[in-house]
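Q: Is it fine to ask for two folds in a single conversation?
A: Yes, each is treated on its own. Send the first.
Q: Here.
A: Result:
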Amino acid sequence: MLSTVNRLQPQNTNSAAKEASQLNGDGQSGEKSFSKLAVTIDVLREIPKNLAMMLPLIRTIRSHYCRSTKDFTRVTEADLTRFAFAALDMIFQHFPVPRLAGATVVEVGPGDAVALGIPLLALGAASYYAIDPFMGNVNSHNARRLYQRVAEELPKRYAIHANVVPSPETFPKAHECRSVFLYREGIEDYPSFGLSEKADLVFSHGVGAQVAYVQSFALASYEFLKPGGIAIHRVDFGPVGCWRRHKNPLTFLAVAEKAWQFANSHRGLSNRVRFHELLGLFQDVGFQVTVEIRERFRREDVLEVYPHLPTRLKISPIESLEVACADFVCVKPPNAATGNGRNSSPISCVVEHSPA
C-alpha cells in the first residue's frame, strides 16, 4: 500500500473513546492485558535506577558494562544480523554500495560497539562518525569478538578482498582521528561537532525512539547532510526494558508524563514520541520523506490502553499509535538551504512493508 500524506491529523477523541469503550466497557472482549497496578509497580521500581544514573560515578561505572550489546563469547548468526547486517541491509536498500565510495557516514547511537564502521570503510567510505552519549568501551575484548566475526563475514557477502577490511584486532583505535571519529555526547550538542553539510549519509537503527532530544535528532540529521544527502532511520516505537514483559506492548504509554520523566530521564529509554510526531519533525526541518511501515501493533491493544493515555498521546491519530516499527528515508533536497530556506510544505510517501 502506498499513500501520500502531508500531516496526520489529531485524533477525534470522542470517536476514539467510543471505539475503546466498545472494546473495554462490557468486559466481553476477552482477557484484559492492561493493569494499572503493574504500571505503578514498574514506575516505582524504575525511579531509583533513574536517580542513580544522575550521579556521575554511577554513570561512569555503568559505562563499563554492556548496555546495547551482549556478552559475545560466541557470536551467532542472529547476533551478526542484529548488531551489524540488519542495519547494512537497511542502508543498502536506499543507498547503493557504489555510492559509498569516498562518502562521509554518520551513525547515531551505535551503543557499545561500532561494528558498522568496519563494513562501511571496507566498502569505500572515507570516514565514519559515531555519536552516542552512552557509548561503551568500543575497544573492549567483547566488542572485538563481534568485530572479528563481522570482518570474517564481509568477503562472503560482498565482492571485496579481505585485505581491504580494517583489522578487527586494532579497530577502531588505530583509525581514530583519521577515518573514525567518536563523539560521546548527546545529539543535542550537534552544532559543536563541526559536521554541518559534510555527510553523504546519516543513519540509525533502533535509536530514534530513545533519543532524549528528538527535535535535535531530526535537525542534526538535516544539518549534517550535504544537499542531496540521505538520512535513513529505523525506529522501533515499542517498549524497552522492563516494559517489554507486559502483555500489552503499549502499556508504557499509559504512564503519566511527569512520572515517566522521573523514572526515565537519565537512562536512554523510550521518549514515547509517536510515528506522526517524528514524521512531522522530519518534514519540518525540510526533508523529503518516504516511510516504510514495517510492523503494526494490534488495534485491540491500542484501544485497550487508549483510555489511560496522557492527553498528548490521547490526541494522537489511532493510525499513528498503531505503528510499531518504521523506516524513515529522508532526502535533503539538492537545492536545500539551512536556516529559513527549508521546504515549508513537504510531502511524504508512506509504504506498507511487504515481507519477502
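Q: Second one now.
A: Result:
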Amino acid sequence: MKTGATAMLCVKRRSIKTRQVGIVFGIFVLIAFWFAGSALAGWLHWPIPGSVVGLLGLWLVLVINGGVPDWLKQPSNLLLRYLTLLFVPAGVGLINHWALLTHYGVHIVIIIAVSTVLPAIVMIAIFKLMRTSHDK
C-alpha cells in the first residue's frame, strides 16, 4: 500500500503528464490550422499567406465555440511567453541584408508607416459607421 507522500507524488506526476499532453495537443491543433490554411491558400491560389488563412480559420472556430478552451490557453500562453525569440531570425535577416536596408531604408519606413496608419484610419471609420448605425 502506498503512503501518503508516495500517493501525492503519483498524483503530482499524473497532473504534470496531463498538462504536458494538453500542451502538446494544443500546439498540434495550432499547427494543424496553420497547415490547413497553407493548403487552402495554395489550392485556391489566394494571394493571402496560408498562415493568415489558418489564423482566420482558428478565429472562426473560436468564435463559434464561444471562446478559447482551456486546453488551448496553455500552449498559447507558452508560445506568447517566448514570442520575442521568434523575432531573432528577422533581426539576423536585417543584418545579412544591410546594404539593401541602407539603400531602401527610407522607402521601407514609409511603406511600414502607411500600412500601419491607413488600416487604423479605416478601422476607426468603420467603427464610427457601425456605432452611428447601431445608435439609430
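Q: Anything structural to flag on that second result?
A: Two points. The chain is about 85% helix and 0% strand. The mean pLDDT is 85.
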